[in-house]
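mind reviewing this fold:
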Amino acid sequence: MSGRTRGRRNPSVSTTRHAGLRTCVGCRARDERSALLRVVALAGNDAAHDDVAGLVPDERGRLPGRGAWLHPRPDCLDLADQRRAFPRALRITHKVDLTRLRDWIEQR
């Protein structure tokens, strides 16, 4: 018996895969990856100050670095800001600047 079917009663029945589920850092609800926006932190020369990390939307999901997932809605952004979720989720010690992210969400 192969390692993939060992332990299953009916190997022809596939299990549900949850690879596309992510958790919003604002409302903490799980949703499909396509419904959420990936957010990354830019520090240093890309931010206004060295001790502030500017958060930017990663529409294509290709920017380097650790990302956090957020529903692209102002209420989820406000919840994440109140809960101080971005520094925790992105594992940064800098203050965060939400200006670019807030502008992007308001334009959508």
